[in-house]
From TrEMBL:
GO BP annotations listed: galactose metabolic process
Family statement drawn from the similarity comment of this UniProt entry: Belongs to the GHMP kinase family. GalK subfamily.
Pfam families according to UniProt: GalKase_gal_bdg (PF10509), GHMP_kinases_C (PF08544), GHMP_kinases_N (PF00288)
Name of protein: Galactokinase
Region described as Disordered: spans on this chain: 160-187, 310-370
UniProt domain GHMP kinase C-terminal: residue ranges: 402-475
Domain Galactokinase N-terminal intervals: 19-67
Keyword Cell inner membrane in annotation: no
Length: 498
């Protein structure tokens, strides 16, 4: 059975420094790292304005960097074949950079776009302990480590320049980076939120993945020892202390090793379904349908409101179940998008509009019917709200173990919803979750974008090993590749290593 422990930070930094020296024949100027993540609850709702509950993994991506004068970005990765890859920053544009280099070069491009500064070229060497393609946010970890590197080059290069008087023989460590006289954005949480926004822009525009922002936010803004509650309406965040150890629990991560990709269109289709539905309801995001207390009742009422939309015109029917009636403001005044509310195109074939049980067709492009997407999104928001309420109970020792068992139930319900309504699970994830439950986990579910990748299981501390063994055995029986296991403890945000 394969465990994947996080390497000690110093060891990994030295590996990145060694890779840098080997590639470029000089010393790195600085070394930066950023963590991968698991999401405890709140899946596929960040782009719909929901609150998510991720935590940073102890597994990090490390980047060794030194500036260049010529505006070229060069990068080499210990985990990718093909040696040094290079692109002039001036050539970075949507669709212009292929593969993993987009996650590197897109970042200074986006930081400049977001008005954070002007950035020099750089040489970089990457070493990732976040497994690639495992749904643990290796792309965001790479972006965030790169963001910290460029941020420091720009800010600290200025400081080095300022002390670079005639009497100072010190060779300037970052000559190309004398661009600003401010402290780094990474010095404050508000500055880190701006760096996260730039990383999201890089991923959306340059890497071409229309992801929602949870991953970059947790990687840059995590608090050690805490789950971070991120309200994705405005990306405000609050750490929630979750002392699993004190409760005698552990969070087991199961990397199913079923390859996971977000850029093949399945993720984007679901996101578009949610965006179109919000627009049809006259809302900024789906979260706005739930009001101030997004509980199960609010989720039911929102679905009734959806059902009350006339499928033919997406206008409210005469009678509205919650009595308030959907206020539909069509920004274009021309009816729903030609693509259709249900992702089925304008013909809306099969939508008979005769009540909540009416059958809606599968959409042509393989995404589930929009009602199923909405049911997942709204019930998941309600589960997160319930979880936030439970977190308050965790602080009262006499309340244990009830709330933990209930949290387990929320994880299980989240998985069922992602599997049955959102249709982002797969055979390996379902098996991992089932086997973990059968072996005694309090709750388990897929985590991250899905379509492969990883699951988490909340287990008694002493049960981590037996549960992992049971999952490995179930995989062997099915003839799946052996899974890998990690333990997640809430770890620190992106930081400078040296
Ligand atoms: C991926 C995306 F990058 C996130 O933004 C989020 O949507 C997640 O899938 C699903 O919750 O990790």
């Amino acid at each position: 059975m394969a465990w994947r422990p996080a390497p000690p930070a110093g060891e990994q930094a030295e590996r990145a420094a060694g890779a840098f020296r080997a590639a470029y024949g000089r010393e790195p100027w600085g070394i930066f790292s950023a963590p991968g993540r698991v999401n405890l609850l709140g899946e596929h709702i960040d782009y719909s304005g929901g609150t998510v509950l991720p935590l940073a993994l102890p597994h990090r991506t490390v980047v060794a960097v030194a500036p260049r004068e010529d505006g070229l970005v060069r990068a080499v990765s210990a985990q990718e074949d093909g040696g040094i890859r290079a692109v002039p920053l001036d050539d970075v544009a949507p669709g212009a950079v292929e593969g993993w280099l987009a996650y590197v070069a897109g970042v200074p491009w986006a930081m400049a776009r977001e008005g954070l500064g002007e950035y020099p070229g750089a040489d970089l060497a990457v070493d990732s302990a976040v497994p690639l393609g495992a749904g643990l946010s290796s792309s965001a970890a790479l972006e965030c480590a790169v963001a910290l590197a460029f941020d420091a080059l720009a800010a600290e290069g200025a400081a080095a320049g300022a002390s670079d008087g005639a009497s100072d023989p010190d060779p300037d460590p970052a000559p190309a980076a004398r661009r600003s006289d401010r402290s780094p954005w990474s010095a404050t949480d508000a500055g880190r939120a701006r760096l996260a926004a730039a990383c999201i822009l890089a991923e959306n525009e340059i890497a071409g993945a229309s992801t929602g922002g949870m991953d970059q936010s947790i990687s840059l803004r995590a608090r050690e020892g805490s789950v971070l509650a991120i309200d994705c309406r405005d990306f405000s965040s609050a750490p929630v202390d979750v002392d699993l150890d004190a409760a005698g629990l552990a969070l087991l991560v199961i990397d199913t090793r079923a390859p996971h990709r977000l850029v093949d269109g399945q993720y984007a289709r679901r996101r578009k379904g949610c965006d179109d539905a919000a627009r049809a309801l006259g809302l900024g995001t789906l979260r706005d349908a739930l009001g101030e207390h997004p509980d199960a009742g609010a989720a039911d009422r929102a679905l009734e409101r959806w059902d009350a939309l006339d499928p033919a015109s997406a206008a409210p029917k005469a009678e509205v179940p919650n009595g308030k009636g959907p206020k539909r403001e069509d920004p274009n005044g021309d009816g729903p998008d030609g693509e259709g509310l249900d992702g089925n195109g304008p013909d809306r074939e099969g939508r008979d509009g005769d009540g909540p049980d009416r059958k809606r067709p599968e959409s042509r492009d393989g995404a589930p019917p929009v009602r199923a997407l909405l049911r997942h999104a709204w019930t998941e928001m309600a589960r997160v709200q319930r979880c936030a309420d439970l977190f308050r109970e965790f602080r009262e020792p006499e309340a244990r173990p009830g709330p933990w068992a209930e949290l387990g139930g929320l994880l299980a319900a989240s998985h069922a919803s992602l599997r049955d309504d959102y249709a982002v699970s797969c055979a390996e994830l379902d098996l991992a979750v089932d086997a973990a439950h059968r072996a005694g986990a309090l709750g388990a579910r897929m985590t991250g974008g899905g379509f492969g990748g990883s699951a988490i299981a909340l287990v008694g501390r002493d049960d981590a090993e037996p549960v992992a063994r049971a999952v490995a055995r179930a995989f062997a029986r099915e003839g799946f590749a052996p899974p890998e296991f990690m333990l997640a403890s809430p770890s620190a945000a992106a930081r400078r290593e040296r």
